[in-house]
Structure formats: structure tokens, C-alpha cells
């Protein structure tokens, strides 16, 4: 059963300008230390990466139905790569339950980049058996 769906699109130029003005402050507000360790070198790739992850967290907040604010902050979820490179969302189960009312949810995430934009979509799905999703 689908619990929530969220989508967000971000202009790469907007993120480039923010990083040029206040990189450290912006990255610390959006990312956990572990996530910051995954940011690639090189300006173009860094901008794409940051924009995609920013869009993903905004999409997650929309799927949760809270937006970014009191119930859910950027620091409440981590987007990290699996060994294959596929981005996955890690979030505290009790926080997820408090927001959605569901004890077990799978978070499906897709991120894409173009020349001017990054886009992310999140689908929260209630699952009775999570064994297929947890190693």
C-alpha cells in the first residue's frame, strides 16, 4: 500500500549560487557528516550531486506530508549509496512511525540530473514483510 508520494525539482544554477555564497553552512544544514563524505570532487559533479540529494530530501518531506520543518528536518534522513551506487534513504523507524503512523515502510527513491535541473521522486510503501529489503 502506498503511504506517500513526493517529487521535487531543483535548478542546478540555484544550488551553484548557494554553494558559491555559503557552501559550508548550506552543506551542514542539508547533509549529515556521512553524507558530506560522499560529495564528489569537481564543481560540476558536486553541484549535480548536492542538487539531487537536496531534491530527494524535499521529495521525502512531501511524501511524509510534513514538508521541512518542525516534524522533519534535513538531518532526520540520510541518502547514501548502496554498493551498486543506487541511492537509498535511511531514516529512524520511530520518526517514520510518528509521522506516517506506519511501523514498516519502504522508501523508494529515484534521482535524475539534466543540464539545468535535478529531480527526485520518493514513494513510501507500507510492507508487512521487510526481509527482502534488509540484509
TrEMBL record:
Cofactor dependency: Mg(2+)
Catalytic activity, EC: 2.7.8.7
Compartments, as annotated in UniProt: Cytoplasm
Catalytic activity: apo-[ACP] + CoA = holo-[ACP] + adenosine 3',5'-bisphosphate + H(+)
Enzyme class: transferase
Pfam families associated with the record: ACPS (PF01648)
Swiss-Prot/TrEMBL keywords: Cytoplasm, Fatty acid biosynthesis, Fatty acid metabolism, Lipid biosynthesis, Lipid metabolism, Magnesium, Metal-binding, Transferase
GO biological process: fatty acid biosynthetic process
Highest taxon listed in the record's lineage: Bacteria
GO molecular function: holo-[acyl-carrier-protein] synthase activity; magnesium ion binding
Domain 4'-phosphopantetheinyl transferase residues, every copy: 4-120
Binding residues annotated for Mg(2+), in chain numbering: 8, 58
Gene Ontology cellular component annotations, sorted alphabetically: cytoplasm
Task of the protein: Transfers the 4'-phosphopantetheine moiety from coenzyme A to a Ser of acyl-carrier-protein.
Family according to the record: Belongs to the P-Pant transferase superfamily. AcpS family.
HAMAP family: AcpS (MF_00101)
Protein known as: Holo-[acyl-carrier-protein] synthase
Gene name per UniProt: acpS
